[in-house]
Amino acid sequence: MKKIAIIGAGSVVFSKQLMADILGFPEFKECTFSLMDIDPVRLGMIEKVAKMFVNQHGNTAKVEVTMDITTALNEAKYVICLVQVGGYPSTLVDFEIPAKYGLKQTIADTMGVGGVFRALRTFPVLDNICHNMEKLCPDAVLLNYTNPMAMLSSYVLRKYPGLQYIGLCHSVQTTTKQLALYMNKPYKEMKVKVAGINHQAWFLELSHNGEDCYPLLNQLKERILNEPDFVPEHLYHYTGKDTWFRENFKESAADTFATDKVRFEMLNRLGYYVTESSEHNAEYCPYFIKDEKLIEKYRIPINEYIRRCKLILSEFEDMKKMINEGKELHVDTSEEYAGYIMHAIETGIDTNINGNVLNTGLITNLPDKCCVEVPCLVNRNGIQPTYIGDLPPQLAAYNRTNINVQMLATEAGLTGKREYVYHAVMLDPLAISMLNLDQMWKMCDELFEAHQELITI
Q: Which CATH number does the domain housing residue 285 bear?
């Protein structure tokens, strides 16, 4: 019986989706879910949800819960990491302390000072997972969904090269669906080739039924950047409200397009469309958040992740009430990669994903041993990254501004040297646009003090 350990399973909103996806494959009808979390309330809730899903699918899968990581990992074949170390209180700190120094952020989970300190909190937990995997399930596949993806992935891949690891995100699927909707094309008929780094990978190819879609996308770009109120007419009539839409769009398709100005601006300047949302990408560069007029022009939601955290907490409470009242919870299957990867490994049927892996000559004009996001083939031979070669030079150069920060933060975790943390923040494009060196140093000092119980360097 295949054992699937989910570490951080108390992240109910996401773990329920992954279990629904996995249970949709007949190869996992007799699997064992080992759900691990440090929060007993959340653990009890996800246990009820998991058993409900098993019954809904008519499967004989088993569900076990534990607060002990060794119990969860023992003889596991797949390990899914969903941890958010420090939870909402630490997230607030990552926003509030930088704000004192004048640094505005939107998401703060991937880059910048927020991403760096989230990585520092997560490194020790990853060590615990990986050390125990080496002893208890050395042949298991570790599928990591926790951010900051590039920093954490390069840390694991460099420190634990014997483990099978892949870093997973859904920005490629989500953005492809968004672009299909923007251009009024069927998503299932789109063909893409995407490569770069996590949250800043590039649509090197974008086509529909063999026809290049960039001319149409560039027409939309000209209108959204030059006509403040422009939205394609068909988006006003889009009524899709599936799980994917609810979790990745704003109030409507029209509103989502209207607030996606940063990515269209970067398309205008660099010639390629980037994965991940405009609110994310606004803080990966020095161009937008530094000026209130620009924030208003590009409709950038400052402190957006705090708003989302509150929504997720509210959704958890609603779900808890629903489950406690004995009501059924139904979740649509999704485009998340985890289930497809596991299915491909079990059956040998090829699947293609985009994954975060160590750069071993895959993208030839990005640094060796940084983390890159590239297409990967998955089957019984495991996860096989695809060679890309050179990115267009402007894209590689732009990626390197973020890679500098990611590699220094990783180096801090690997060596235990705090000075690399200050150097990482010193080179962060957003911090550079707002803060002087003294402010950066004092901000880091205060964040180290605030997070001292969770950081080991």
A: 3.90.1820.10
